[in-house]
Design a protein that fits this description.
By secondary structure, this protein is an alpha+beta fold. It has helices spanning 11-20, 40-43, 58-82, 102-114, 124-130, 162-175, 231-239, 266-277, and strands spanning 2-7, 26-32, 47-48, 88-89, 93-97, 120-123, 150-154, 158-160, 179-182, 184-193, 199-208, 216-217, 222-225, 241-244, 247-250, 284-291, 304-307, 310-314, 323-331. Helix 1 runs parallel beside helix 6 (162-175) and helix 3 packs across helix 6 (162-175).
Length: 344
Amino acid sequence: MSHVVVIGCGVVGAAIAYELSQVPGLKISVLDKQQPATAATGAALGVLMGVISHKIKGKAWQMRQASIQRYETLIPELEAITKHHIPFNRQGILMLCFEEDLARWESLVKVRTSDGWQLEIWDAAKVKSRCPQIDCDAEGGTLSDRRLSAAVYSPQDRQVDPVSLTLALVEAAKRNGVSFHFGVTVEEYDLSTTTQHQPRVRQVKTKAVGVEKSPLIQDVDWLVVSAGLGSLETLHPLAGKVEQGEKIIPESPSLPVPPSFHPSSRENSTQFELGRMVDIRPVLGQAIQVKLKHPLGNPDFQPVITGNDVHIVPCSGGARAAEYWVGATVEFPTDKGEIVAAPT
């Protein structure tokens, strides 16, 4: 039996653990220094852009296409196992756009239609009819010389509550025999050498953060790191290291290596190579949760509405929602490496 160890239990780590738990002959252990879905997953809006994405070929589109199809079976599958409701908005995504954007969207509609996917362009009249809360004639601000001329509607894209999904994945994985250890960090890796003389993790020693006992994870065959921004810290025992026989002992965690860094020693060179191989950078986002007396627009039609990377996301899966997440989850750093809020 092969032993897979997953470090990180956000939505990615939990999904990996659950999917692998259905493969015969695997033993799976999951480690996280926090409770599940309390870091980046807890701040995500859960907007699933597949059909409406401009990716049309290669792995980027293949993964989106597989994801769209899997979610349709995954949510009811998890609800049946856990007996818990997972808010899952099946009313699609409405992307607002301006006249200069239409040609690009028309081209994408042709591609998607030829592949058997649904994607529609709505004129301003239809937008106003289906979503009366959207003022297609509004002017002002930085867009004073532009009017909303159309929208692209993707009925097959979805939105899911990331926290509810993650907790359901964890519960379902536990029922399949997956072991979860929360409140622990990686303190040390023990290595062995393969027949090709390559180092291989065989044992993971942990340090308790919020539990009484630190588990020793033994007989490791595969190590999967899905700790988000904490991945570099988790990998540091393997890269920035002091070698002592077959053990690798961690030094102080380091931040991602900046582009201007020039290694001046073997230790720094190792950290530099890690930063080059695993380029993980934080992406800021800001969102607020708004509770209203009544749903916006048509209470029976509550898609995710998005434009210029700002989303209006109905909570509770879009079913007559009167609560919304409003905000952006993409704010990129400047050329100097500083992360700043996008201008208003």
